[in-house]
Design a protein that fits this description.
single chain; alpha+beta; Phosphorylase Kinase, domain 1; Transferase(Phosphotransferase), domain 1; 2 domains; 3-stranded antiparallel beta sheet
Length: 313
Protein backbone atom coordinates (compact mmCIF):
# COMPACT_ATOMS: atom_id res chain seq x y z
CA UNK A 1 0.00 0.00 0.00
CA UNK A 2 1.15 3.51 -0.72
CA UNK A 3 0.69 6.89 0.94
CA UNK A 4 -2.45 8.76 -0.20
CA UNK A 5 -4.00 5.55 -1.53
CA UNK A 6 -7.79 5.63 -1.04
CA UNK A 7 -8.89 2.28 0.37
CA UNK A 8 -12.48 1.21 -0.32
CA UNK A 9 -13.02 4.70 -1.71
CA UNK A 10 -13.18 5.86 1.90
CA UNK A 11 -9.90 5.66 3.84
CA UNK A 12 -7.03 7.85 2.69
CA UNK A 13 -3.69 6.43 3.88
CA UNK A 14 -1.44 9.06 5.46
CA UNK A 15 1.34 7.64 7.67
CA UNK A 16 2.73 4.11 7.67
CA UNK A 17 3.37 3.40 11.35
CA UNK A 18 4.62 -0.17 10.99
CA UNK A 19 5.34 -2.68 8.27
CA UNK A 20 6.60 -6.25 8.56
CA UNK A 21 5.91 -9.71 7.12
CA UNK A 22 2.74 -8.92 5.23
CA UNK A 23 1.39 -6.56 7.88
CA UNK A 24 0.97 -2.80 7.77
CA UNK A 25 -0.43 -0.28 10.22
CA UNK A 26 -1.53 3.11 8.92
CA UNK A 27 -2.88 6.38 10.20
CA UNK A 28 -5.59 7.37 7.73
CA UNK A 29 -8.47 9.78 7.22
CA UNK A 30 -12.05 8.61 6.89
CA UNK A 31 -13.14 10.95 4.10
CA UNK A 32 -16.76 9.76 4.24
CA UNK A 33 -17.24 10.69 7.89
CA UNK A 34 -19.51 13.67 8.57
CA UNK A 35 -16.28 15.57 9.26
CA UNK A 36 -12.81 14.20 8.33
CA UNK A 37 -11.86 11.70 11.02
CA UNK A 38 -8.44 10.25 11.82
CA UNK A 39 -8.45 6.46 12.11
CA UNK A 40 -5.96 3.64 12.43
CA UNK A 41 -6.00 0.77 9.93
CA UNK A 42 -4.34 -2.60 10.45
CA UNK A 43 -3.76 -4.50 7.22
CA UNK A 44 -2.91 -8.17 6.73
CA UNK A 45 -1.85 -9.47 3.31
CA UNK A 46 -3.32 -12.84 2.42
CA UNK A 47 -0.78 -14.99 0.59
CA UNK A 48 0.13 -18.69 0.32
CA UNK A 49 3.14 -18.24 2.64
CA UNK A 50 1.17 -16.85 5.57
CA UNK A 51 0.55 -18.96 8.65
CA UNK A 52 -3.05 -20.03 9.26
CA UNK A 53 -2.75 -18.77 12.85
CA UNK A 54 -2.10 -15.24 11.57
CA UNK A 55 -5.39 -15.17 9.70
CA UNK A 56 -7.25 -16.79 12.59
CA UNK A 57 -5.96 -14.24 15.11
CA UNK A 58 -6.67 -11.29 12.80
CA UNK A 59 -10.24 -12.41 12.18
CA UNK A 60 -10.74 -13.08 15.91
CA UNK A 61 -9.48 -9.60 16.75
CA UNK A 62 -11.93 -8.01 14.31
CA UNK A 63 -14.84 -10.06 15.66
CA UNK A 64 -14.13 -9.42 19.33
CA UNK A 65 -13.40 -5.71 18.84
CA UNK A 66 -16.99 -5.33 17.63
CA UNK A 67 -18.22 -6.50 21.05
CA UNK A 68 -16.01 -4.19 23.13
CA UNK A 69 -17.26 -0.81 24.27
CA UNK A 70 -14.91 0.94 26.65
CA UNK A 71 -13.70 4.56 26.52
CA UNK A 72 -10.04 3.53 26.89
CA UNK A 73 -10.00 0.80 24.25
CA UNK A 74 -9.90 1.77 20.54
CA UNK A 75 -13.40 1.75 19.08
CA UNK A 76 -14.17 -0.63 16.21
CA UNK A 77 -15.19 1.16 13.01
CA UNK A 78 -14.93 -1.22 10.06
CA UNK A 79 -13.65 -4.56 8.76
CA UNK A 80 -13.18 -5.22 5.06
CA UNK A 81 -11.28 -7.05 2.34
CA UNK A 82 -9.30 -5.44 -0.45
CA UNK A 83 -9.19 -7.47 -3.66
CA UNK A 84 -5.99 -8.07 -5.63
CA UNK A 85 -6.87 -5.36 -8.17
CA UNK A 86 -6.91 -2.64 -5.55
CA UNK A 87 -4.34 -4.35 -3.36
CA UNK A 88 -1.54 -4.34 -5.92
CA UNK A 89 -1.74 -8.05 -6.63
CA UNK A 90 -2.52 -9.17 -3.09
CA UNK A 91 -5.71 -9.79 -1.16
CA UNK A 92 -5.73 -7.73 2.05
CA UNK A 93 -7.83 -7.77 5.19
CA UNK A 94 -8.36 -4.43 6.90
CA UNK A 95 -9.43 -3.56 10.43
CA UNK A 96 -10.31 0.08 11.16
CA UNK A 97 -10.38 1.60 14.66
CA UNK A 98 -10.44 5.12 16.02
CA UNK A 99 -6.97 6.61 16.40
CA UNK A 100 -5.65 7.26 19.90
CA UNK A 101 -3.09 10.04 19.87
CA UNK A 102 -0.37 9.52 22.46
CA UNK A 103 2.86 7.71 23.29
CA UNK A 104 3.28 4.16 24.48
CA UNK A 105 4.85 3.42 27.84
CA UNK A 106 7.59 1.67 25.86
CA UNK A 107 8.35 4.96 24.10
CA UNK A 108 8.94 6.57 27.50
CA UNK A 109 11.12 3.67 28.64
CA UNK A 110 13.17 3.88 25.46
CA UNK A 111 13.81 7.54 26.28
CA UNK A 112 15.02 6.54 29.78
CA UNK A 113 12.00 8.18 31.40
CA UNK A 114 11.76 7.45 35.12
CA UNK A 115 8.22 7.18 36.40
CA UNK A 116 7.47 8.65 39.82
CA UNK A 117 5.72 6.61 42.51
CA UNK A 118 2.37 8.40 42.12
CA UNK A 119 2.53 8.01 38.34
CA UNK A 120 3.05 4.25 38.65
CA UNK A 121 0.10 3.92 41.07
CA UNK A 122 -2.07 5.92 38.67
CA UNK A 123 -1.03 3.84 35.65
CA UNK A 124 -1.70 0.63 37.59
CA UNK A 125 -5.22 1.66 38.58
CA UNK A 126 -6.04 2.76 35.03
CA UNK A 127 -4.94 -0.59 33.58
CA UNK A 128 -6.80 -2.58 36.22
CA UNK A 129 -10.02 -0.70 35.50
CA UNK A 130 -9.77 -1.67 31.83
CA UNK A 131 -8.99 -5.29 32.69
CA UNK A 132 -11.94 -5.46 35.09
CA UNK A 133 -14.21 -4.48 32.22
CA UNK A 134 -12.74 -7.15 29.92
CA UNK A 135 -12.58 -9.92 32.52
CA UNK A 136 -16.15 -9.32 33.74
CA UNK A 137 -17.69 -9.58 30.30
CA UNK A 138 -19.66 -12.75 29.61
CA UNK A 139 -17.68 -14.59 28.44
CA UNK A 140 -14.53 -12.85 29.75
CA UNK A 141 -12.02 -11.49 27.25
CA UNK A 142 -8.32 -12.08 27.90
CA UNK A 143 -5.93 -9.68 26.18
CA UNK A 144 -2.91 -12.04 26.41
CA UNK A 145 -0.34 -9.40 25.45
CA UNK A 146 -0.20 -6.72 28.14
CA UNK A 147 3.16 -4.94 27.84
CA UNK A 148 4.50 -1.35 27.74
CA UNK A 149 4.21 -1.04 23.94
CA UNK A 150 0.50 -1.89 24.07
CA UNK A 151 -0.29 0.74 26.70
CA UNK A 152 -0.64 4.32 25.49
CA UNK A 153 -0.61 7.49 27.55
CA UNK A 154 -3.12 9.61 25.66
CA UNK A 155 -3.13 13.37 25.33
CA UNK A 156 -5.93 13.38 27.91
CA UNK A 157 -3.54 11.76 30.44
CA UNK A 158 -5.49 8.49 30.48
CA UNK A 159 -4.01 5.07 29.79
CA UNK A 160 -5.33 3.18 26.75
CA UNK A 161 -5.01 -0.54 26.04
CA UNK A 162 -4.38 -1.25 22.36
CA UNK A 163 -3.51 -4.09 19.98
CA UNK A 164 -5.96 -6.90 20.55
CA UNK A 165 -4.23 -9.14 18.02
CA UNK A 166 -3.63 -11.81 20.65
CA UNK A 167 -7.03 -11.52 22.32
CA UNK A 168 -8.79 -14.67 23.48
CA UNK A 169 -12.48 -15.21 24.04
CA UNK A 170 -12.29 -17.54 27.04
CA UNK A 171 -15.50 -19.33 26.12
CA UNK A 172 -13.84 -20.59 22.97
CA UNK A 173 -10.64 -21.52 24.77
CA UNK A 174 -12.13 -24.02 27.18
CA UNK A 175 -11.13 -27.58 26.37
CA UNK A 176 -9.32 -26.72 23.15
CA UNK A 177 -5.78 -25.94 22.13
CA UNK A 178 -5.29 -22.42 20.87
CA UNK A 179 -2.44 -20.37 19.49
CA UNK A 180 0.35 -19.63 21.94
CA UNK A 181 0.91 -15.86 21.91
CA UNK A 182 2.54 -13.27 24.13
CA UNK A 183 5.83 -11.47 24.53
CA UNK A 184 8.88 -12.94 26.24
CA UNK A 185 9.28 -11.58 29.75
CA UNK A 186 5.59 -10.66 30.08
CA UNK A 187 3.93 -13.99 29.31
CA UNK A 188 3.03 -16.24 32.28
CA UNK A 189 3.93 -19.96 32.37
CA UNK A 190 0.39 -21.23 31.77
CA UNK A 191 0.04 -19.14 28.62
CA UNK A 192 3.07 -20.88 27.13
CA UNK A 193 1.01 -24.07 27.42
CA UNK A 194 -1.96 -22.45 25.69
CA UNK A 195 -4.06 -22.12 28.84
CA UNK A 196 -4.60 -18.40 29.33
CA UNK A 197 -6.94 -17.28 32.14
CA UNK A 198 -7.82 -13.78 33.42
CA UNK A 199 -4.98 -14.08 35.94
CA UNK A 200 -2.63 -14.38 32.94
CA UNK A 201 -3.28 -10.71 32.18
CA UNK A 202 -2.48 -9.89 35.81
CA UNK A 203 0.91 -11.60 35.45
CA UNK A 204 1.65 -9.55 32.32
CA UNK A 205 0.59 -6.40 34.18
CA UNK A 206 2.99 -7.29 37.00
CA UNK A 207 5.87 -7.78 34.56
CA UNK A 208 4.99 -4.46 32.91
CA UNK A 209 5.05 -2.67 36.27
CA UNK A 210 8.40 -4.25 37.08
CA UNK A 211 9.75 -2.72 33.86
CA UNK A 212 8.34 0.68 34.87
CA UNK A 213 9.69 0.65 38.43
CA UNK A 214 13.14 -0.69 37.55
CA UNK A 215 13.60 0.57 33.97
CA UNK A 216 14.94 -2.91 33.23
CA UNK A 217 13.14 -5.36 30.89
CA UNK A 218 11.86 -8.41 32.83
CA UNK A 219 14.00 -10.72 30.66
CA UNK A 220 17.14 -9.00 31.98
CA UNK A 221 16.30 -9.48 35.66
CA UNK A 222 17.31 -12.61 37.60
CA UNK A 223 14.80 -15.36 38.35
CA UNK A 224 14.39 -17.69 41.28
CA UNK A 225 11.95 -20.58 41.15
CA UNK A 226 10.59 -19.23 37.83
CA UNK A 227 9.78 -15.90 39.54
CA UNK A 228 11.23 -12.54 38.53
CA UNK A 229 13.47 -11.03 41.22
CA UNK A 230 12.99 -7.28 41.12
CA UNK A 231 12.69 -5.87 44.66
CA UNK A 232 16.38 -5.00 44.92
CA UNK A 233 15.87 -2.66 41.95
CA UNK A 234 12.45 -1.29 43.00
CA UNK A 235 13.70 1.52 45.23
CA UNK A 236 11.12 4.06 44.01
CA UNK A 237 8.07 2.26 45.43
CA UNK A 238 6.87 1.33 48.91
CA UNK A 239 7.64 -2.26 49.99
CA UNK A 240 3.89 -2.96 50.30
CA UNK A 241 3.40 -2.08 46.64
CA UNK A 242 6.36 -4.29 45.73
CA UNK A 243 4.67 -7.15 47.62
CA UNK A 244 1.46 -6.46 45.69
CA UNK A 245 3.34 -6.69 42.38
CA UNK A 246 5.06 -9.86 43.57
CA UNK A 247 1.65 -11.50 44.03
CA UNK A 248 0.80 -10.68 40.40
CA UNK A 249 3.83 -12.53 39.08
CA UNK A 250 3.44 -15.76 41.01
CA UNK A 251 4.33 -18.59 38.56
CA UNK A 252 1.19 -20.53 39.60
CA UNK A 253 -1.96 -18.74 38.43
CA UNK A 254 -3.94 -19.85 41.49
CA UNK A 255 -1.50 -17.98 43.77
CA UNK A 256 -2.23 -14.64 42.12
CA UNK A 257 -5.25 -12.52 42.99
CA UNK A 258 -8.49 -14.43 42.50
CA UNK A 259 -9.96 -11.66 40.32
CA UNK A 260 -8.86 -8.36 38.84
CA UNK A 261 -11.39 -6.53 41.00
CA UNK A 262 -9.81 -7.99 44.14
CA UNK A 263 -6.40 -6.90 42.85
CA UNK A 264 -7.65 -3.31 42.49
CA UNK A 265 -9.29 -3.40 45.93
CA UNK A 266 -6.03 -4.57 47.51
CA UNK A 267 -4.06 -1.92 45.63
CA UNK A 268 -6.31 0.91 46.80
CA UNK A 269 -5.94 -0.22 50.39
CA UNK A 270 -2.19 -0.62 50.10
CA UNK A 271 -1.64 2.70 48.35
CA UNK A 272 -3.39 4.83 51.00
CA UNK A 273 -1.55 6.12 54.05
CA UNK A 274 -3.81 4.42 56.60
CA UNK A 275 -3.43 1.70 59.20
CA UNK A 276 -4.33 -0.76 56.44
CA UNK A 277 -1.27 0.18 54.41
CA UNK A 278 0.84 -2.72 55.60
CA UNK A 279 -2.04 -5.14 55.99
CA UNK A 280 -1.53 -8.64 54.65
CA UNK A 281 -2.83 -8.94 51.08
CA UNK A 282 -4.58 -12.26 51.71
CA UNK A 283 -6.64 -10.72 54.53
CA UNK A 284 -7.70 -7.94 52.15
CA UNK A 285 -8.98 -10.58 49.73
CA UNK A 286 -10.98 -12.19 52.54
CA UNK A 287 -12.33 -8.79 53.55
CA UNK A 288 -13.57 -8.06 50.04
CA UNK A 289 -15.19 -11.48 49.69
CA UNK A 290 -16.92 -10.93 53.04
CA UNK A 291 -18.21 -7.54 51.89
CA UNK A 292 -19.72 -9.20 48.82
CA UNK A 293 -21.45 -11.82 51.00
CA UNK A 294 -22.84 -9.22 53.39
CA UNK A 295 -23.96 -7.09 50.46
CA UNK A 296 -25.98 -9.97 48.99
CA UNK A 297 -27.41 -10.92 52.40
CA UNK A 298 -28.50 -7.33 52.99
CA UNK A 299 -30.18 -7.25 49.58
CA UNK A 300 -32.02 -10.53 50.28
CA UNK A 301 -33.18 -9.25 53.70
CA UNK A 302 -34.43 -6.04 52.06
CA UNK A 303 -36.37 -7.97 49.39
CA UNK A 304 -37.74 -10.38 51.98
CA UNK A 305 -38.95 -7.51 54.17
CA UNK A 306 -40.66 -5.91 51.21
CA UNK A 307 -42.49 -9.13 50.33
CA UNK A 308 -43.55 -9.61 53.97
CA UNK A 309 -45.04 -6.10 54.08
CA UNK A 310 -46.91 -6.71 50.81
CA UNK A 311 -48.47 -9.85 52.29
CA UNK A 312 -49.65 -7.90 55.33
CA UNK A 313 -51.42 -5.27 53.19
Amino acid sequence: MRKHHLLKNRYKLLINLKENAGRQTWIATDVKASSPKTVMIKLLAFNPQMQWDELKLFEREAKIMQTINHPRIPQYIDYFTVDSTEGEGLLWLGLVQNYIKGDSLQDFLDKKRYFRRKEIYYITEEILEILIYLHELSPPIIHRDIKPSNLLLGEDDHIYLVDFGAVQDKAKAEGVTFTVVGTSGYVPPEQLWGKAVPASDLYALGATLIHLVTNIPPTELPQKGMQIQFKHQATRIHPSFANWIEKLIQPAAEKRFKTTRIALYALKNLSLDTKKFGQDIDSLESELRSSYVWGWLSLLVFIGSGLFLLLLV
